[in-house]
Design a protein that fits this description.
- By secondary structure, this protein is α+β, with helices and mostly antiparallel strands.
- The chain folds into two domains: about 90 residues, Signal transduction histidine kinase, dimerisation/phosphotransfer (DHp) domain (Helix Hairpins); about 150 residues, Heat Shock Protein 90.
- The chain contains six helices and seven strands; from the N terminus they run H-H-E-H-E-E-H-E-E-H-H-E-E.
- A five-stranded mixed beta sheet has the order 2-4-5-7-6. Strands 1-3 form a two-stranded antiparallel ribbon.
- The longest helix has about 45 residues.
- The structure holds adenosine-5'-diphosphate.
Length: about 250
């Protein structure tokens, strides 16, 4: 075959692959958006119907609507962020803050949803208070939420999520752990690529767009840090975000 024909074939293959990725993505995202919208509608209908008069129940349904709306906002934020990252328009706003405070706030806002799904979320604070560093709190919060959401989504039979903040020499480390389905070793690098989802049936049954971890990586690297994973199939997974206590690189700070 001539070089020209080879090139044309390769371009055609790439186009087919891209178009498959695109249609998978659209269908995955639509599925993911549908679930919180459906819950919000159901709980709003309960409330509007006026038959729920017990104030505790009213509060509980209100909480569901609030947490599901938050989840929806996060999904949309992920999609918008993804598009900003792809076009090179994602910007970060750094201000002095404590990693622990961002972690505590992520735990708090996840708690209601996790508890109502039967999960325990265990938080381990650092042995000693860590210094303030320059952080984009919203972006880091979103990264932690993405990891917590994953810990829940891929939890299998387990109902436990752990979040720990500690110091390791010059780094602040945040770990998000689960005792869920785990990730095969060969997949552990590729999961950070956009759209990449592990191809097992356990994962296929869970809704997802394959964007969450690519955003986590972008956020962490903008802070001059890195994110790692250690995992064993069937045992669980730990994602560790490491941020230098010296702060983000000067071009960002
Ligand atoms: P998704 O929307 O598919 O969850 P992510 O980018 O957040 O996208 O994650 C990419 C893939 O990495 C997931 O589809 C899943 O296969 C795997 N993964 C991520 N977090 C976990 C976890 N805590 N346990 C097991 N697998 C995970």
């Amino acid at each position: 075959m001539t070089a020209g024909a080879m090139l044309a074939l390769r371009a055609a293959n790439r186009a087919v692959h891209l178009s498959a990725l695109k249609s998978d993505f659209v269908s995955n995202v639509s599925h993911e958006l549908r679930t919180p919208v459906a819950s919000i509608r159901v709980f709003a209908e309960f409330l509007r119907g006026g038959r729920v008069t017990d104030t505790d129940k009213v509060r509980e349904y209100g909480e569901y609507i609030e947490t599901e709306s938050r989840r929806l906002s996060r999904l949309i934020e992920n999609i918008l962020d993804f598009s900003r990252i792809e076009s090179g328009n994602k910007t970060y706003r750094f201000a002095p803050a404590r990693v622990e405070d961002v972690a505590v706030s992520a735990v708090r806002t996840s708690e209601i949803r996790l508890r109502s799904a039967g999960f325990t979320i265990e938080f381990t604070p650092p042995a000693q208070e860590l210094p303030e560093i320059l952080l984009d709190e919203d972006a880091l919060g979103q990264a932690l939420h993405n990891l917590i959401d994953n810990a829940v989504k891929y939890s299998g039979e387990s109902r436990w999520v752990g979040l720990a903040v500690r110091r390791d020499n010059g780094d602040a480390v945040v770990e998000v752990a689960d005792r869920g389905i785990g990730i095969p070793r060969a997949e552990q690098v590729r999961i950070f690529d956009r759209f990449h989802r592990v191809g097992t049936s356990l994962v296929h049954d869970v809704k997802g767009s394959g964007l969450g971890l690519s955003i986590v990586r972008h956020v962490v690297e903008a802070h001059g840090g890195h994110v790692t994973v250690s995992s064993e199939p069937g045992k669980g997974t730990v994602f560790a975000i490491r941020l230098p206590l010296a702060g983000p690189p000067p071009e960002h700070g």
